[in-house]
Amino acid sequence: MVDILSLKESALVYLDRSGGLQKLAEDCRPFNGSHQIEAVYRFCVIVNPSDVMEVDPVLGERVLCDPLGSTALFQCVCFLAIKTLSLIKKIHTQSQVNVILKLTHLPPFPEYTLDLCSFPCGRGPMRPVTMEGLVIAMTRVTKYTQGARFLCVNDECPCSTGFHHIRVHAPGATESATVRSDFSCTSCSSPLREDVKFRVLGDKQLVELIHVKALDALSAHQQRSLRYQSVTLFLRDELCNSMRIGRLYRVLGIPAHVHQGSDITWSVEANGVQTWEPERKAVLKTQLQTLFPCCLSITTVKPLSCCHTSAEPREVCGSFWKLSKATEGFRWRFSAIAAHRFGLDVAPPGLYNTLKLSLLLSLVQNRADAKETTYNFDLLAVTTDTLVLDRLMTYSLSLACRGVRHQASGEMFASLARDEHGAGTANIHAGSALLATGGICMLGDLGCYKKERLDAIQSVLESCTVSVFVPGKKYGEDADQLLNFPVHCSFWALTDSTEASRRCRRADCAVLGTAEMGPVPVQLADAFGLVLQCRHVGGEQALLAQTLHMLQQAVQPGKLLYPSCWEFSTQDYKELVGHARSLKAEISAGAEKIIHGYYMASRRVRTQSHGVKMSVASVKLLISLAEAHCKLCLRTQVLEEDAVIAILLCENSVTLKHVLLELSCRGLSTCYPT
Hints:
single chain, five-stranded mixed β-barrel, 21 strands
């Protein structure tokens, strides 16, 4: 048996070397300033397992494999230090010291990693583990009992006074394990009663974490016959409100079996939380070495202009790198070819080029961290062929870092349910928009939604927040609450313009901005950043080309229908979008001057002529589009040509929303720069 005294000495040496004793002394000072005597004094001790291993391997193994036993060791050492140094004179017994060990990290071994896809999860040892996942639900912050003081009912027993019986919360313990009425005295076996005025309360929050691959069921990816189950996390005290719905996190926690009557549930007590982003797969370097043997010695690429640099060759797929080299000196050719050859599984080249370019820009500009809403822009496509556009958007959604296709039967924003772990508080479940944080939420055809849902979509687009009303009476609270959750995703939607044409034949629809908008109100169309009209420019010839394309795809799937010197696979586009999204673009003075000049001139002319107000959000959209085009062209500085593309797209959108029908028929494809 390991000598306990030796382990305590090692723990004291570690605290002395790591500065833990000094931090303990600093944490004790606030308690001395108060005259109130507490039943429990809580201290957080930061423990680095690697440093503990250097001091004492046996103690390090105890920290990694026996969290409760190692906590008891550090509790004893901290109590002795407090009494020896007279840090808190109001502490009388060791049980009054509540020590929480905060681990900095865990060894990178499979034994300390929990894959949320594995099943069952609760058969392993109850040792600290790390896990990564997506937050799909969380409760409001409620109270729990950190510690309580109990006194013996027998007045002659020495335990009828003092702090002999202290109950402290342990990982995995329920409220009834800390406070209830059937405890007995260890000295005389008499019943114990709680001294309520010494009860110490803390904050508690429940979070549901699930594997990020569970989103495949809501996206355009190929679905698998797998079932994903969420894990309940308990966040306590300083960890409350450290997680957000729809975000990815790496959690260090201690698994526990929670007993609720005759039921046993498996949950995790969180010990540390940090944001997490999946590592993007590296590009195939062998392909690049075959295409460009000298690539490894190249660090920069010859710029397309004198004031920008492009991406390193080994970070981009070989096909697009060759295209970048071949289109040097041609300002818009790279993005034009990329859009022209995009989505050939759905539509033939030459059709919907404006929409394809806009989808690529939206994919590039969305970021996984989603810290700023200015990186996202919303897209509404007005068309007469909703089937093809729906397929094209679905295909593009598979290239997003996170893409969620909203199902009509599902919840779009958030829903409420009662917590199943005994707290009885409101459990807020994420809808499609919150699950798509940092990515794309595809709404589909807006004609399928009722007016109430369209109004809710408009409110979210304008405020970038989701409001959830929590009735206090239903969920055990004194007052009602209105909770707001930020929305950090781009919305894609489409609408059928033929419905508005039918209504226009029956009634007078001469209002500006309502021409060929389908069932979408003009206020909702204004809330979308970019509105595109997707119609067949070639008339019957374009319709015939689309029909032949669909027939050939059905009869000869996988056959190369449009041979060209530039062939790009879906994987090539995925690598292009992934790398372009990781670039950081800086706007040049020339591009900023063009954008500012267009905004001021458009604001002045349109306000005077049409009564249309150009908001500040238009400037953000212009900058976002210009940055997206810059990154799509594998550059890191926004140039004048990027600003021109942004202005053309915005001008086309504003024209469609606010000008007469005959003017709104102009498409970007007729005036694309050459």
